[in-house]
Write a structure and sequence with these properties.
Structural class: alpha+beta
Number of strands: 7
Order of helices and strands: HEEEHEHEHEE
Helix content: 10-25%
Strand content: 25-35%
């Protein structure tokens, strides 16, 4: 019993040291910079991104069995979602690896989901005018350093962390 207590205390000590050092932590700061030389913006996570401007064109908005199935998921949004596919067209040259990443599955393979991976619902689509053929200015973030998601795309004017449909509090 004494050995188990010592092991438990040792594990707590290691966890406290790792937390203080940021080891294994998802927190921290990510530096995002653009090619214009502006100061970096801190967005969370120990990663750095380069920014690339472009447009996102909505290719399809449809209910699938998976998107509609989120209705019955415990802790889910409580509504049937829509699978929204889009393509990103850069306004400037992308690094080869980013271009390959975007085109590995073909055009219109990018999936628009809320920040927590829920599918957007009908009211979200209406609020943000997300329809087939809609075009949004967009920003692609390509990882420069760190181990975060390698490519992130944000559509201007679309708040993917807006959970108003579910009645859940906003989290980001």
């Amino acid at each position: 019993m004494r050995t188990m207590s010592i092991l438990f205390l040792l594990l707590l000590l290691i966890a406290a040291i790792a937390d203080a050092a940021g080891i294994g932590s998802m927190g921290g700061n990510a530096s995002v910079s653009n090619n214009s030389g502006d100061a970096p913006v801190m967005v969370g996570g120990p990663c750095e991104y380069d920014l690339y401007n472009g447009t996102a064109t909505i290719c399809s908005v449809m209910q699938t069995s998976e998107s509609a199935g989120q209705t019955g998921v415990a802790g889910g949004p409580g509504y049937a979602g829509y699978e929204v596919r889009y393509e990103f067209t850069p306004a400037e040259d992308l690094p080869v690896w980013v271009f390959d990443y975007l085109n590995r599955s073909g055009n219109c393979s990018l999936l628009l989901q809320l920040c927590n991976s829920w599918y957007p619902g009908p009211e979200f689509l209406e609020k943000y005018n997300i329809t087939e053929g809609a075009v949004f200015n967009a920003t692609l973030r390509a990882i420069r350093a760190g181990t975060c998601t390698p490519v992130l795309i944000e559509l201007d004017g679309v708040d993917r962390c807006d959970y108003f449909e579910s009645g859940s509090p906003r989290t980001s």
